[in-house]
Amino acid sequence: MMAFWLIVAAMLTGALACIVPPLLHGPTPGRGTSHAALAGLLIALVPASALTLYMRIGDPAALAIQEAASAPTREHADTPASMEAAVSLLAARLQRDPNDAQGWSMLARSYMVLDRPGDATEAYRRAVALNPRDAELRADYADAIASANDGNLDGATSKVIESALAIDANQPKALALAASAAFDRRDFAGAIRYWERLMNVPDLAPEIGQQARKNIDETRALAAKGASVNVRVSLSAELEKRVRPTDTVFVYALADDGSRMPLAVQRLSVSQLPATVRLDDSMSMTPGRRLSDFSRISIDARVSASGQARPASGDMMGSSGIVSLEGAKVVEVRIDDVVR
């Protein structure tokens, strides 16, 4: 058994070495879909304790890969086809021995390198089922789920992140993912709390702590710009049985001038309710219509089974009514009505 794993590991390492250079350009800031290959690549190539993970503001996939990027390109006799062959060998081996957690984990990481996040998700699911108390494995699983869903950290991904942190509250990758998920929701206070927890992880690599501090400072600066309001959104008990955890929830601010064009919009899922979200000027939909341009607003929340922004019959709604933006601390919105 050990000899088999040594052979497979050697094949994967060799094939990985020749495909590293094309992937080291790094993701575009704010683009959630770019992290599949990068995340799997870094996880496969270096020990988890050495990774600088998910640290760029607004992009949960932005891995700090300066050391890898600065390494000289190496010629290698193996090709990507060698890795495909190694992965096929590994997959076949697991069909004969499906209770090998280490094997499923290696297969999942290999699929991530090959930009096959759907296959990686299934392999990680098998690995987690066999090794349910491994927080790092769960964090990797969350990454794969997000990669297979265009970088979306809500829903199932969020649940896996939470389960990883329930096992190990100091799991670095899970904390970084949670911070990025909060930032994507414009929950700046929540993102800062997760980054602060990450900074306090024992034996954290200095570069990770430095990036976390930079993220905190930039997030605070962003949150301080313009007007903002915190909204506590909940769903009535009567409507809970009529929704699915994956249904989309839109939370948006409207000006007290009759216009239905939102001043700011936040998006989350039913599985996250109840939740407190932040609406601010950075979410303005059109020039000249920001929260800070109006003193009186209303906050609406709507559950959309279709995920579409346009209201439809059967959607579930709630509204705060008119509130003064200046005096608002936390605005309560309870979703308790159905659109006819």
Automatic annotation (TrEMBL):
SUPFAM superfamilies, A to Z: TPR-like
Keywords: Cytochrome c-type biogenesis, Membrane, Repeat, TPR repeat, Transmembrane, Transmembrane helix
Domain Cytochrome c-type biogenesis protein H TPR: 90-200
Keyword check for tRNA processing: no
A Pfam family recorded for this sequence: Ig_CycH
Highest taxon above the source species: Bacteria
InterPro entries: C-type_cytochrome_biogenesis, Ig_CycH, TPR-like_helical_dom_sf, TPR_CcmH_CycH, TPR_rpt
Domain (Cytochrome c-type biogenesis protein H Ig-like) ranges: 229-336
TPR repeats: 101-134
Keyword Transmembrane helix: yes
Annotated TM spans: 33-54
UniProt-recorded name of the protein: Tetratricopeptide repeat protein
Organism: Caballeronia jiangsuensis
